[in-house]
UniProtKB/TrEMBL annotation:
Keyword Zinc carried by entry: no
Subcellular location: Cell membrane
Phylogenetic placement of the source organism: Bacteria, Pseudomonadati, Aquificota, Aquificia, Aquificales
Main subcellular location: membrane
Species: Hydrogenobacter thermophilus (strain DSM 6534 / IAM 12695 / TK-6)
Family, per entry: Belongs to the 4-toluene sulfonate uptake permease (TSUP) (TC 2.A.102) family.
InterPro entries hit by this protein: TM_pro_TauE-like (IPR002781), TSUP (IPR052017)
Keyword Signal: no
Membrane topology: Multi-pass membrane protein
Keywords recorded for this protein, A-Z: Cell membrane, Membrane, Transmembrane, Transmembrane helix, Transport
Membrane spanning residue stretches: 40-59, 71-91, 97-115, 201-221, 228-247
The protein, known as: Probable membrane transporter protein
Ranges in a coiled coil: none
GO cellular component, one term: plasma membrane
């Protein structure tokens, strides 16, 4: 199987997984490593390709985003600043250091995916409408994580949206996609000037993410979201174990 075919299949599955349950990065990142990219280049190449997914998602929720535009103002600046800061930190992380961090990042993303429903419910119950400087800080740190690694970022964004009182799940998902596109977009812009982007895979990955996201959205009712989420969580734990073992 050629490298481009592997990259396409992985990004298609990741796009569909993101549309249904989340955690698609846990599919494309190891696929790129398997194709021979070092972990840092794999992560950066994946991020440069990934922004097409939330862009398409934001387009699909454009009416809901318009309805909730008043909520965007306190979130735009921390999202852009945090996305840039995360990208800057990643580009300036030595490859060997990032390789050491990979299993911890994958484990964190997997745990985040495992408890995402509880995080959102807790935020809705305890934080709704309690906007303060904490919203800026939480969204900034979320965006830093998004620019640096990003798997599961949308879960934290939904918690941030609860803090400013968004009750409509469709508005929340629309704004989540828009913010995700902005965070990935500004990080990708910075990454484009680095030496770590493997450009030959970018068109293939973007096509796979776009088609997979569309297919996942159209076919989501045919799949059991909980079973797919459980599979991704198990896969994440296996990956983190594999990368932990590879450190020794």
């Amino acid at each position: 199987m050629s490298g481009h075919l592997i990259a396409f299949v992985a990004s298609f599955l990741a796009g569909a997984t993101n549309a249904i349950a989340g955690g698609g990065t846990l599919i494309t990142f190891p696929a790129l490593v398997w194709l021979g990219l070092d972990p840092l280049s794999a992560n950066i190449t994946n991020t440069v390709s990934l922004w097409i997914g939330p862009l398409m998602g934001a387009f699909g929720f454009r009416k809901h985003i318009k309805a909730g535009r008043r909520y965007l103002k306190p979130l735009l600046l921390p999202s852009l600043l945090g996305g840039f800061a995360g990208a800057y930190l990643l580009v300036n992380t030595p490859v060997q250091t990032f390789k050491f961090l990979v299993p911890f990042l994958i484990l964190f993303a997997t745990l985040l995916l495992a408890i995402n429903d509880k995080v959102v419910v807790w935020a809705e119950k305890n934080l709704r409408g309690k906007y303060s400087a904490w919203v800026f800080l939480v969204q900034f740190l979320t965006a830093v994580y998004g620019g640096y690694f990003g798997a599961g970022m949308g879960i934290i964004v939904l918690a941030s949206l609860s803090m400013i009182g968004i009750a409509d799940i469709h508005i929340a998902n629309g704004i989540k996609n828009l913010l995700g596109m902005l965070i990935n977009g500004i990080a990708s812009g910075y990454f484009a000037f680095s030496k770590h982007v493997v450009w030959e895979y970018i068109p293939t990955l973007m096509l796979g993410f776009a088609l997979g996201g569309y297919a996942g959205a159209r076919l989501s009712l045919m799949f059991d979201r909980k079973k797919i989420k459980l599979f991704v969580i198990l896969w994440g734990f296996i990956l983190s174990l594999f990368f932990f073992v590879s450190l020794f």
